[in-house]
Specification:
- By secondary structure, the protein is mainly beta.
- It folds into 3 domains: 3-34; 48-191, no CATH class; 192-265.
- Helix content is 11%, strand content 42%.
- It contains 3 helices and 16 strands.
- The chain has helices spanning 3-22, 29-34, 131-134, and strands spanning 54-57, 83-87, 96-102, 108-115, 121-125, 143-146, 155-162, 167-175, 180-184, 190-191, 194-196, 201-209, 212-220, 226-237, 242-251, 254-264.
- The strands form 3 sheets. The chain has a 6-stranded antiparallel β-sheet with strand order 11-12-13-14-15-16, with no helix packed on it. The protein has a 5-stranded antiparallel β-sheet with strand order 1-2-3-4-5, with no helix packed on it.
Length: 265
């Protein structure tokens, strides 16, 4: 074989060896240099999901069909399966679970409270909730949490009853030392309650008719008292066909009328 042919063959072999090292049609150069393809790392396992907060009706598990039970109304909410709520009372505390037992007469019984995952009942609040008393509210709205005394711990706001226009609530304040929820008698019975954490104020309102309503605002004090600082009333004089709106404010330790306006109706 001639030297020219041998040189041509050697050049072809050398080119075949070098070409994979300089041509990277896919992937990074580092992957090709190693001679192996590195697959994209699989995403790490997601953080285990935490139970969602809120309330959920349980499923009726009795052997008698619901339609055959007393007080069953087709198309209306039935609460015989009970209600379970989960809320976080404080970031450093385990989740609390609140369970209302469903009863055969389609009402809720006592409220059992458990803390964490042990399932041990740490408190039972005596309760009787008739769905006729809280309609048109839904069962899932019976219990919610709010910091009612502005101490950093969530408290229980438990629906008591609903009228034609408004609903009223009972409040249970969380006591971190006793790990118990204690009835707050002053707030219990408030209707349409709202809380302002920045000002540490609590307001409630009521609506009697289109022309009769009112509202109150209380300032929370360090000693645990709620002091009335503002009151608004709307009254309807049916005989005179007028509506009067009055506003009172706390001044010098007394509630004083600061504004009043009467309009024909």
């Amino acid at each position: 074989m001639r030297h020219k042919d041998i040189a041509l063959i050697l050049a072809s072999l050398l080119l075949a060896l070098l070409l994979p090292l300089v041509w990277h049609p896919h992937g990074s150069a580092s992957n090709q240099d190693s001679g192996t393809r590195h697959p994209t790392p699989a995403p790490s396992d997601p953080t285990p999901s935490q139970p969602s907060e809120g309330c959920k009706l349980g499923t009726y598990t009795g052997t008698t069909p619901l339609s055959s039970l007393q007080y069953y109304v087709a198309g209306e909410e039935d609460i015989r399966g009970g209600l379970t709520c989960t809320f976080r009372i404080h970031p450093k505390l385990p989740l609390f679970t609140f369970h209302f037992a469903g009863r055969e007469d389609n009402t809720f019984g006592n409220l059992d409270i458990t803390s964490g995952s042990t399932g041990e009942v740490v408190q039972t609040i005596k309760n009787t909730t008739d769905p006729n008393f809280f309609a048109p509210s839904k069962a899932k709205d019976i219990l919610t949490v709010v910091d009612a005394n502005f101490d950093g711990y969530q408290d229980l706001q438990l629906l008591s009853s609903c009228g034609a226009k408004t609903c009223s609530y009972n409040f249970y304040l969380y006591d971190p030392k006793a790990n118990q929820f204690v009835l707050e008698k002053f707030l219990s019975g408030f209707s349409i309650p709202t809380f302002d954490p920045a000002k540490k104020q609590v307001s409630q309102g009521w609506l009697m008719s289109a022309y009769e309503s009112g509202g109150e605002t209380y300032q929370y004090e360090k000693d645990g008292r709620y002091v009335l600082i503002k009151k608004q009333e709307t009254t309807w004089d049916r005989a005179a066909h007028t509506v009067t709106q009055s506003t009172y404010e706390l001044r010098n330790g007394q509630m004083e009328l600061v504004d009043s306006k009467t309009t024909p109706q």
